[in-house]
Each structure stands twice: as structure tokens, then as C-alpha cells.
Amino acid sequence: MQRRSKAYHISILAVLIAIVISQNVVPFFGYIPILGLSLTTIHVTVIIAAVVLGPKDGAIVGGAWGLIDWARAFIAPTSALAPLVFTNPLVSVLPRILIGVVAGWLFIALKQRAKPAVGLTLAGVAGSLTNTVLVLGLIGTLYRHAAAGFYQVDLSKLMPYLLTVVGTNGIPEAILAGIVVPLIGVPLLRYRQRKG
């Protein structure tokens, strides 16, 4: 029974990593352009891994996403800024790993205090904001001059500009995660409990 449970766990982890790979490769699956914004959906998969399988596996799935972003920055950059900032694993990999860590541990902390849907919603929002704040914060801290030039803003206005990006891109992504994670997470958690 233990061996079957471990095989089930590894197969779910593999499926989630495969979904992350697909979201990075298939157009409009991982990055959806809406009204001039590019909403990321990949973080939702990482958060689901974290709440269903645990923070460690969420970190593994997030790390897979980060490594893909890191490799793409060298091979097929998504913007002119990507080869400069996303070739640094502190910007491309670390925030994606921490999505799983933050969302997973927050869900565990809320498990006894709140209904599963509430815990999943809060974990979704927190995981999403972890990614947005860390990526933009690290860009603003480590690559201030390059980012100011790329975004065509005065250096003194870079942080307010990045905060605007958090509001216009980060908040919708957090709302998306707060809605989708419980919709997918609640049935998966129920199924997992039934499997024992």
C-alpha cells in the first residue's frame, strides 16, 4: 500500500511538471494576453502542487518553471530585458521555488483554522503575490539601470513604475489564483483523502 501511495504521489508530481512545461511551450496557455497585459497562469499549477502534494513538491514544480524561464532567457528570450535579468537564477528560479514554499506552508498553517476553500484561496493569493513581488523587487534592486532603460522611465520613478506593474499585472494574477486554486484544489484534496 505504501509503495502504491508513493507511485501515485510521483505520478501526480510528474503530471504537474508536464503541465508547467506545456504552459511554457503552448501559446496562450501559460501567458494569456488580455487588454495589453500578459497574465501568467503557470503559478496556479505551482500553487496546486504545493497545496495538494506539500511545500517540497510545490518547490520542485516551481523550480521546474524557474529553470525553463532561465533556459529560455539564453535560448529564446521573451523580451529584450529577459537575457539580462532572467539569466540570473535569483530572479528566474528562486521566486518560482518560493511560490511553492509560501503557498504550501500557508495552506498547512490554515488547515486547522479555516475551511479548505478559504485556505486554498489565501494560499493561491499569497503564492501569486510571492512571485510578482520577488521578481519585480529583484529586478528593481539588482538591475535598476537596465530596467529603467527598458521601461523608459527615469531611475527615480522605477520603483513607483514597478509597483504599478504589481497593481496592473500582479493583482489580476493573484485574483485568478484565488479563484482557480480552490476550484481545482478542493476536488483534488477530496480525491486524495479518499485514496487514503
From TrEMBL:
Annotated signal sequence range: none
Record InterPro entries: ECF_trnsprt_substrate-spec
Positions of transmembrane segments: 7-25, 31-53, 65-87, 93-110, 117-141, 161-189
Pfam families, per the entry: ECF_trnsprt
Alphabetical keyword list: Membrane, Transmembrane, Transmembrane helix
UniProt KW Membrane keyword: yes
The protein, known as: ECF transporter S component
Taxonomic lineage of the native organism: Bacteria, Bacillati, Bacillota, Bacilli, Lactobacillales
